[in-house]
Amino acid sequence: MSTPAAPAARLHHVELVMGTAVSFDIRDSVAERGGLDTAIAWLHHVDQTFSPYIPDSPISRLGRGELTLDDVDDEITGVLLECEQLRADTDGAFDAFAVPAPNGTMLDPSGYVKGWSIERAATILETAGHTDFTINAGGDIAVRGHAAPDTPWAIGVRHPDDRSQLAMVLDVIGPAAVATSATYERGAHIVDPRTGQPTTDLASVTVVGPDLTNVDAYATAIFVMGLPGLQWLTKHPGYDAMAITHDDRVHLTPGFDGWRRSRQGRSGS
């Protein structure tokens, strides 16, 4: 018996922002664009505030010492405080204050800001009444509700060595999030803050959990930690990970297998 095709998205939009294509796929009954437009405006605000690629962004000016923490608003100080807590939690594997940034400074909170901003955009859509959607920012995905009635979202994890293949397909019911850190798009760009050198011990890391803010940051941290990062993640209930090594071996935390496609869709709540 064939499975009925999922209904077409009521709202679909791709926005070029934060150096990537952010795709909104909204499948609930709310057709008004107000929430979508507000979420898009929010992402552009984040880009102008936190981008290390924009020379006059507040984060670039702070990194160069042209601003102090007393000069910036609570939004910026709050993000930097969360980054410091992640640095302590990961024993320095995630460190927004010790990695060379594109603006020539050593301050780059992008590894936190991307997931945080997309998660906040999802909250904006929820406030506008949306219940079933995904926001995909270059493979970092915030999920809400279902793809269709009683149908989980099918989230494909790209194979690190073959862009035409998937390493795994996940069944996800929101609220949840999926993020992957790998070198296949930008090469060896993930730097170990403890050594100052790019890290390539793993081919890719995918983390799933209840919110993209932590899921995205944890994926980066585990990529830096290597396979021991999977054990580290078990201290964080509700989060699971898959690591693929360069010999194509797949390593999972105990709960990750439950997210595989054809099983009952998992929720991050």
Question: Can you characterise this structure?
Answer:
By secondary structure, the protein is of the alpha+beta class. The chain has one domain (11-267): Roll (T-fold), CATH 3.10.520.10. It is built from six helices and 13 strands. The protein has helices at 34-50, 58-63, 74-89, 110-127, 212-225, 228-233; strands spanning 11-17, 20-26, 133-137, 140-144, 153-159, 162-173, 176-182, 191-192, 197-198, 202-209, 240-245, 250-252, 266-267. Strands 1-2-3-4-7-10-11-12 form an eight-stranded antiparallel beta sheet, with helices on one face. It has a three-stranded mixed beta sheet with strand order 5-6-13, with no helix packed on it. α4 (110-127) packs antiparallel against α5 (212-225). The longest helix has 18 residues, at 110-127. The radius of gyration is 18 Å and the shape is globular. The two termini are 32 Å apart. Mean pLDDT is 92; it is low at 1-6.
The main sheet comes to: 8 strands, antiparallel
CATH architecture: Roll
Mean pLDDT across residues: 92
Number of strands: 13
Q: Please identify which CATH superfamily we are dealing with.
A: ApbE-like domains
Helices and strands, in order, run as EEHHHHEEEEEEEEHHEEE
Strand percentage, roughly?
25-35%
State the shape: globular
Specify the CATH class.
Alpha Beta
CA distance, first residue to last residue: 32 Å
Overall helicity? 25-40%
What is the number of independent domains?
Answer: 1
| Contiguous helical run count | 6
Low-confidence regions: 1-6
Find the structural class using helix and strand composition: alpha+beta
Strand order of the largest sheet: 1-2-3-4-7-10-11-12
What is the alpha-carbon Rg in Å? Answer: 18 Å
Predict the CATH topology.
T-fold
